[in-house]
Design a protein that fits this description.
Elements: E1 12-15, E2 25-30, E3 34-39, E4 45-49, H1 50-56, E5 57-62
Antiparallel strand pairs: 1-2, 1-5, 2-3, 3-4
Pfam families: DUF951
InterPro entries: DUF951
Protein name: DUF951 domain-containing protein
């Protein structure tokens, strides 16, 4: 099954099955061939392949630069995310 939803760095996504802490919300910390996710309940970090992620993801809850989300406690602006300088 092919899902056509877009996600980006620092977005919050909902997964199909809950984590051990009973939370379905995950923050996208790395995007590439592998996806790194952080549990919004307990802070546990996992990495999975993009194929596994698209199978297990349900929907995007919040986008990173959406002005409505600036009021949330876990919001981090895209400009404030630490990125390495590769030149």
């Amino acid at each position: 099954m092919n899902k056509n939803f877009s996600f980006d760095l620092a977005d919050t996504v909902e997964m199909k099955k809950p984590h051990a802490c009973q939370t379905n919300n995950w923050e996208v910390m790395r995007v590439g061939a592998d996806i790194r996710l952080k549990c919004m309940g307990c802070g546990h970090v996992v990495m999975m392949s993009r194929g596994d992620f698209t199978k297990r993801a349900k929907k995007v809850l919040t986008k990173a630069n959406d002005p409505v989300n600036r009021k949330l406690a876990h919001y981090v602006a895209k400009e404030e995310i630490a990125r390495p300088n590769f030149k």
